[in-house]
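Deliverable D2.4 — example input (structure tokens):
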């Protein structure tokens, strides 16, 4: 019996191997799991340090070594989706035989819970900064050539800056550079740029420093985190997105995914809570999308409207939700995603429970 247990333990723990040709080093990771994809593979190679992390559900497998010799700046990652094999192909700087892959670092060849793995940061360059509203900007950052990383739907990254001598870290949710209006094909991310829509607060510690970054400046960006799973949307018929202020950010990729990839989807409704009309993010794009795709509807609700605002007023409430959220048919499969200031999200969840929605029918985006 012991042997059987031993064998099964060996079977599920990932492992790695490496080999070389005259000018290449290939590191192979055997994940021993099906359904691998690019979002589950995070590779960084800088200053001779190679770090390859594989995300396997709530676990993470890590290969982390100080390479024996120098390699060139870029590398390739090949993912055998069905067989679960991941290859990292490095180019040698000199055509010399390596005796070893390198010096193992402390967490090398470990398979532990993701929550136990500290955040890893790499330096990204600010490429552009565009105004979205009077206080919100779209920042575009570029990953180094030596990084392979894609941010999955519903996940956030952490930005880190030293402010007045202290390290400050805040989470932000990557989105697309615009709302794709032609929803035939999912918008393809290039794997190089990360877009963040960030509200600059006049007394905000982090956002003030961020606003002072110049094009070309570096900032540390972490690997993605978050507990949203694509499978939550996969069979959904009616999708409701409740967003307040910058709580809109996780909804963008979600909208793109739902409208292109979810075949049974009948309706998507974004209920977007803001203070004033000029706080509404991407209003024009949202209205254009609603015109283009009859499955999509957007409703703006203002808590501090001008007198001439003809739309809905107020904050999130049970009455408002029951009025604004209608199923396309009786017993349709529903998912409600909610994101905004903590009190908004907490109250929203409570009201939804009161209205009879189950835990499985809701997802709250939080830290
Ligand atoms: P702070 O110095 O913390 O203060 C910001 C402003 O809010 C100030 O005016 C302050 O007076 C006030 N304030 C501070 N704390 C409170 C409070 N508890 N209640 C009321 N007012 C308060 N933001 C984005 O713009 N875009 C995103 O994509 C985004 N994604 C996020 C993802 C996650 C998972 C989480 C948890 C947050 C996200 N945020 C996002 C918010 C972001 O992390 C920062 O909190 C925000 O940028 C403010 O940081 P700051 O240091 O500039 O502000
Ligand atoms: P804001 O202050 O402009 O408020 C927008 C709307 O939120 C208001 O009009 C109101 O309808 C609602 N609201 C605000 N405070 C409320 C309260 N106490 N109770 C009920 N409703 C309330 O919003 P903002 O400055 O854009 O802030 C957005 C918030 O979303 C931030 O707190 C940010 O941390 C959070 N956020 C979280 C995530 C995440 O967890 N994944 C992602 C993005 C943003």
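Example output (designed residues):
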């Amino acid at each position: 019996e012991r042997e059987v247990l031993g064998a099964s333990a060996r079977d599920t723990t990932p492992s790695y191997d490496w080999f070389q040709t005259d000018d290449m080093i290939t590191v192979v990771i055997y994940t021993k799991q099906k359904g691998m994809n690019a979002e589950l593979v995070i590779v960084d190679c800088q200053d001779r340090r190679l770090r390859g992390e594989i995300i396997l559900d709530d676990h993470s497998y890590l290969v982390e070594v100080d390479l024996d010799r120098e390699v060139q700046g870029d590398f390739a990652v090949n993912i055998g989706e069905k067989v679960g094999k991941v290859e990292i192909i490095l180019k040698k700087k000199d055509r010399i035989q390596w005796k070893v892959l390198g010096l193992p670092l402390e967490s090398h060849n470990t398979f532990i819970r993701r929550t136990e793995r500290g955040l890893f940061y790499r330096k990204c360059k600010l490429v552009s900064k565009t105004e979205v509203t009077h206080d919100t900007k779209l920042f575009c950052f570029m990953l180094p050539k030596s990084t392979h990383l894609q941010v999955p739907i519903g996940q956030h990254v952490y930005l880190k800056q030293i402010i007045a001598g202290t390290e400050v870290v805040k989470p932000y949710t990557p989105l697309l550079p615009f709302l794709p209006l032609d929803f035939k094909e999912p918008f393809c991310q290039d794997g190089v740029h990360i877009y963040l829509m960030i509200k600059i607060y006049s007394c905000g510690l982090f956002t003030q420093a961020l606003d002072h970054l110049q094009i070309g400046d570096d900032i540390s960006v972490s690997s993605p985190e978050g507990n949203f799973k694509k499978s939550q949307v996969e069979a959904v018929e009616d999708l409701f997105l409740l967003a307040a202020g910058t709580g809109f950010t996780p909804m963008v990729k979600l909208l793109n995914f739902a409208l292109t990839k979810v075949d049974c989807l009948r309706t998507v409704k974004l209920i977007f809570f803001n203070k004033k009309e000029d706080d509404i993010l991407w209003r024009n794009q949202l209205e254009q999308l609603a015109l283009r795709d009859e499955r999509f509807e957007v409703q703006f609700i203002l808590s501090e409207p001008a007198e001439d605002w003809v739309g809905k007023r107020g904050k999130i409430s049970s009455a408002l939700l029951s009025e604004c959220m209608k199923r396309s048919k009786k017993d349709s499969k529903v998912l409600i995603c909610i994101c905004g200031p903590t009190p908004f999200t907490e109250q929203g969840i409570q009201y939804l429970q009161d209205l009879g929605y189950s835990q499985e029918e809701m997802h709250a985006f939080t830290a």
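The pocket of nicotinamide-adenine-dinucleotide (ligand 2) is lined by residues 156, 173, 199, 244-247, 249-250, 273-275, 279, 303, 315-316, 339-341, 343-344, 347, 365-367 (CB under 6 Å).
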